Amino acid sequence: MEFQLQTPVAFLVFNRPDTTQQVFAEIRRARPPKLLVIADGPRPDRPDDAEKCRAVRALIEQVDWPCEVLKNYSDVNLGCKRRVSSGLDWVFDTVEEAIILEDDCLPDPTFFRFCQTLLEKYRDDERVMMISGDNFQFGRNRTGYSYYFSRYTHIWGWASWRRAWKHYDVSMDLWPVIRDERWLEAILDGPATVRYWRSIFERVHNGAINTWDYQWTFATWIQNGLVVLPEVNLVTNIGFGQQATHTASASRFSNMATSAMHFPLSYPAFVLRDANADDYTWRTMFRVQPLVLIKQLYNKIRGF
């Protein structure tokens, strides 16, 4: 039977009509019954932003399939932290679960079925807080199944539930307790990892990093939550380049190849984090990178 997408899709856009058009084409191909669009407003110090933002929003008017389109557009520029966090709050206030794509995260068509299938499977399993379409193992097969479990909240195409997002706090009010009572030592492996993430979370908490996504990692970790990651990469980031705010430099994570997921899925017989895969992610994505480059690679928001 032909797959039919029933899950709402949330689409985060800003000022990049070129990449937005490509991602929108895949959303149109998937034909979600509900599309929730989050858009930030133009930056006052960028004269060309207003026209670019209008061009991006005009693309949304091209919806030509049976679809309820809901819009959360800001007239002013809120920035990465406030626009994405408030937009996702709106999404999960509106729907119980959603697939989330940003305007430079181009999915393989099977990404949507992968997310929908696992949103249903783990809908009531509090251990699982997120489904991601990202695989940064560069061809290393970790299991004989279609996916594995991780601690890392890769956000280049993902899905979640209201019941998980309720733990999200953009201000990270619990951070001082986690820091001072040394709970990171219980969550993470080894002093280097603890030092790295303590520095990240401290900077986010005190406003030195203007972002939304590290707070999601923090929320997932302090709930002892797991993330589903596919055994093949289902989403490629096409947003690296000079127009990007956080991904302007060349990277092995740019324009990664995608593969189709095969169905029916092969489900793991256990719900355990793959420590070997996570260790590889730590060594290749975090430990070897300076903080500024990590923000480029891991957050990649283009100036929301």
Produce a short descriptive summary.
The protein has 304 residues and is α/β, with parallel strands linked by helices.
Element layout with pairings:
Layout: E1 9-13, H1 17-30, E2 34-39, H2 49-60, E3 68-73, H3 79-94, E4 97-102, E5 105-107, H4 110-121, E6 128-132, E7 147-150, E8 158-161, H5 162-165, H6 175-180, H7 184-187, H8 191-205, H9 213-222, E9 226-230, E10 235-237, H10 275-287, H11 291-299
Parallel strand pairs: 1-2, 1-4, 2-3, 6-9
Antiparallel strand pairs: 4-8, 5-10, 6-8, 7-9
Helix pairs in contact: 1-2
Description:
- This protein is of the alpha/beta class.
- The chain is built from 11 helices and 10 strands.
- It has helices at residues 17-30, 49-60, 79-94, 110-121, 162-165, 175-180, 184-187, 191-205, 213-222, 275-287, 291-299, and strands at 9-13, 34-39, 68-73, 97-102, 105-107, 128-132, 147-150, 158-161, 226-230, 235-237.
- The protein has an 8-stranded mixed β-sheet, sandwiched between helices. A two-stranded antiparallel ribbon has the order 5-10.
- Helix 1 links the parallel strand 1 (9-13) and strand 2 (34-39).
- Helix 1 runs parallel beside helix 2 (49-60).
- The chain is globular and about 50 Å long.
- The protein starts with 8 loop residues before the first strand and ends in a 5-residue tail after the last helix.
- The relative contact order is 0.17.
- The model is unreliable at 244-248 and 290-304 (pLDDT under 50).
